[in-house]
Design a protein that fits this description.
Number of strands: 0
Shape: elongated
Largest sheet: none
Strand content: under 5%
Low-confidence stretches: none
Radius of gyration: 25 Å
Distance between the termini: 82 Å
Mean pLDDT: 86
């Protein structure tokens, strides 16, 4: 009985375009809205003003993240597609040169020249397959698996909103002091770091503590600035 080469293990999707914007969005939402809330609270503003500022920060940040991710991923995708089209034209206009180029790739990898030429010839018989191979070898991309701007935008919007609402929740539930918001946000930061560590096979405690320290530092700085500016404006 033959056993598939992949029967003993599997790989996670690393090219879907969702992980980076989701992680970045959640962390950014937590840290930026915690910093905003801490800064407004430090200026001796009322709890209602803090809540309104937090809601505004959530909405503005989520839409900004989504728009930025969509534009950046779409621009990158368009650039890659333009380069793939260049390769498609070269394969159509100069097939012999492209065949020699692919042969040279396999020779450099240690394949015997005669075998390398035969492998390149057989793989180049299908134009779409040849394009895919050349794109992978020369551009480092898979034409059929490019990141989606829509996926990136939706992922970043949703994750930012989830992250930003955590430090806001205590105020929406009636809190009048800053410490519950800070506590919820820091717990959220630690958990986010730990979850990311699970996805990337890093120590969960190190990643969690790193995010907690960074968030606490941001909140401390903005609270101090808010207190300083609030006193100065009075």
């Amino acid at each position: 009985m033959s056993v598939s080469a992949e029967a003993h293990h599997s790989h996670r999707d690393v090219n879907g375009g969702w992980l980076r914007p989701s992680v970045f969005g959640a962390m950014d939402g937590l840290v930026s809205n915690l910093g905003l809330i801490a800064g407004v609270a430090g200026s001796s503003a009322s709890s209602r003003a803090v809540a309104v500022a937090g809601l505004a920060g959530l909405a503005a940040g989520a839409f900004s993240m989504a728009a930025g991710e969509y534009t950046s991923v779409a621009s990158q995708r368009e650039l890659v597609e333009a380069e793939i089209e260049v390769e498609r034209r070269e394969l159509r206009r100069h097939p012999a040169d492209e065949l020699a180029e692919l042969t040279d790739v396999y020779i450099r990898r240690g394949v015997e020249p005669e075998l390398a030429r035969e492998v390149a010839r057989q793989l180049s018989a299908d134009p779409e397959q040849a394009l895919e191979i050349h794109a992978r070898e020369e551009l480092g991309v898979d034409p059929g698996d490019l990141p989606s701007p829509t996926v990136a935008a939706v992922s970043s919007f949703g994750s930012f909103a989830v992250g930003a609402v955590l430090p806001l929740l205590p105020y929406l539930l009636g809190a009048t002091a800053l410490w519950p918001a800070v506590a919820v946000a820091l717990v959220g930061l630690f958990l986010c770091g730990a979850v990311v560590a699970r996805l990337t096979a890093r120590p969960w405690w190190f990643s969690g503590l790193r995010q907690l320290v960074l968030g606490a530092a941001a909140a401390g700085v903005t609270y101090g600035l808010g207190a300083l500016f609030g006193t100065a404006l009075e």
